[in-house]
Design brief:
The complex is a heterodimer of chains A (131) and B (133).
Chain A: E1 6-9, E2 12-16, H1 23-40, E3 44-48, H2 57-72, E4 76-80, H3 84-93, E5 101-103, H4 106-117
Parallel strand pairs in A: 2-3, 3-4, 4-5
Antiparallel strand pairs in A: 1-2
Helix pairs in contact in A: 1-2
Chain B: E1 5-10, H1 13-29, H2 34-53, E2 58-67, E3 70-79, H3 87-90, H4 104-111, E4 114-120, E5 124-132
Classes of the chains: A alpha/beta (131), B alpha+beta (133).
Amino acid sequence: MERIPILKLGDFLLVTIQVDMHDQLAITLQDDLTTQIAKHASRGVLIDISSLEIVDSFIGRMLANIAAMSKVLDAQTVLTGMQPAVAITLVELGMSLSGIKTALNVERGMEILSQFTDPGYEPQDADGSQE
Amino acid sequence: MAPRSEVHPIAGANDVVKVRQVARSWALDLKLSLVDQTKLVTAASELARNTLDHGHGGTMRVEQVENGLRKGIKLTFEDKGPGIPDIAMALRDGYTTGGGLGLGLSGSKRLVNEFDIKSEVGRGTTIAITRWK
């Protein structure tokens, strides 16, 4: 079966969507990603969609689902590289993807994920505090 | 010269992808702007999925249309499915019978210049959209 490859890079998982996605492929990606997050205890997921020429409500919902599921599994999702025409269309369609962190490119997306997984970013717990 | 109209089947998930490619290629031929291309292709994707999921499959006709000096692309989605009992309700944002987001019809209407829907319960649904250059 056709699959979108998921790359593991340290604590993160990287996905680059480069094909015109049919619905089943989107569902498979959703399943594969959640499995991989749990397997590797990943802290972040970066999904690059710079090659995607459209995001319709189905693909948008799949992306929102991935972000929500990752969050439940204690991983942060960043969506990178959305083309301006796609962003305009998506908002006009009625999807703002408000629950998803976005970045203009992969580099900035990785920065966001690194900040998130930086130990200093996490709130200190009670027994770690000064006397 | 390119044909003025074509009909494509929508019988499976791969046809939704095919329909997007067809809409893109016609929009390119007419030299629609990138944003207009994207809107038309996205609307085509939504409606093709509706034709498949709710109409049990059907067809998309694509044609180049003219109105005076204006040129546009018209896409007509036709199915012989169960039809839509309440079109006004179906066009509302967030209304869904399929467990989706309910943005397919209402959203694609916002993405095009003209949107015409005809439906008869038990007979099927025809939706025509036009994006002018």
